[in-house]
Request: fold
Amino acid sequence: MDIVFKSKQLEKLCNDERLGQKKWGKPQAGVLRRRLDDLRAARCLEVLRGGPGGLHELKADRAGQLALDLRGGDRLIFEPAHDPPPLKPDGGLDWNQVTAIRIVEVGDYHG
Reply:
């Protein structure tokens, strides 16, 4: 899967192991790295359904975004990087057609 980032700063934090460990700690940075590796290796979102991280779509003010669990309450939050996002006939996101994502945030959106 193709991965882009909302900002250069976020891209650097996610891709530079030393910076990630400084920001989130070694255990969290390690989980983040594994989630990003899983995303990069997947041909589409559907193959990650039911896998590590509990991939799920978000609702309400975060509709259109998805999240993967990290540690504690932190999540890797992203959205399809397709314009427009691929939809099924019922209007839901077609996970089989999502082959590119934009990382939006790493953090706890509940707090």
Notes: The chain has a mean pLDDT of 95. The beta strands are 2-5, 56-57, 66-69, 75-80, 100-107. Residues 45 and 111 are 26 Å apart (CA to CA). The first strand starts at residue 2 and ends at 5.
